[in-house]
Amino acid sequence: MESTHSPGNPFGDFATTQWSLVVAAGNCESENANQALETLCRTYWPPLYAYVRRRVQDSHEAQDLTQAFFERLLEKHYLADANPQRGRFRAFLITAFKHFLSKEWDKSKALKRGGGRPPISLDFESADSQICIEPASGLTAEQLYDKQWAITMLTRVMESLEAEFAAKGQADHFAELKGFILGDHAGATYAEVASRLDMTEAAAKKAGSRLRHRYRERLREEICQTVSGPEEVEDEMRNLLAVLEL
């Protein structure tokens, strides 16, 4: 979904794509409400699932609660008062989830997957293999939420970059150079990459520099979609990088 500019938007062309989805999902008369809700669910369910997995021992119960939360967003009008001027989407979502758990936990525990609305297909098995929810990790439920949020954001950025390069017929370039974005290149050198891509080492270094620059651009764009204004971007980026160290 592209960001739009309107005279009533105080941030001009500042991207608020995810907030636009929230507003659409909260508008019961919107024809795109259900589609918006599913988009939000598929994008941001892992951090919420990480949060509730840390709070409950039964993984099936955590799965039921996660699905029930998204399924009831429209039914209970939790998004009706959502407003991008009120703060960051990350904070809004966990606040809404906590409210849901405190008010409807008992009711949701009895909810069986498949009842009510058709359940949204979520890859819980994959999530369980990636999320460290054991108490030994030393992370609180809130810290797990923030860390998984950061991982979700970075994963979305990498996936969008991969698609961008593939569209330009440069999937092999991305595959070879992506390790240099965050320094996770397993000891590979630009000389080795240059040889495999049939280019000079200097050209490979330049391509790696451009990719890192594009990565930072896309990360900023992704963050812009989840905050209420440009003045929050740098702070949110610092927060994102800090929680990855947890």
Automatic annotation (TrEMBL):
<keyword id="KW-0731">Sigma factor</keyword>
<dbReference type="InterPro" id="IPR007627">
    <property type="entry name" value="RNA_pol_sigma70_r2"/>
</dbReference>
<dbReference type="InterPro" id="IPR013325">
    <property type="entry name" value="RNA_pol_sigma_r2"/>
</dbReference>
<keyword id="KW-0804">Transcription</keyword>
<protein>
    <submittedName>
        <fullName>RNA polymerase sigma factor SigX</fullName>
    </submittedName>
</protein>
<dbReference type="GO" id="GO:0006352">
    <property type="term" value="P:DNA-templated transcription initiation"/>
</dbReference>
<dbReference type="Pfam" id="PF04542">
    <property type="entry name" value="Sigma70_r2"/>
</dbReference>
<feature type="domain" description="RNA polymerase sigma-70 region 2">
    <location>
        <begin position="42"/>
        <end position="101"/>
    </location>
</feature>
<keyword id="KW-0805">Transcription regulation</keyword>
<dbReference type="InterPro" id="IPR039425">
    <property type="entry name" value="RNA_pol_sigma-70-like"/>
</dbReference>
<dbReference type="GO" id="GO:0016987">
    <property type="term" value="F:sigma factor activity"/>
</dbReference>
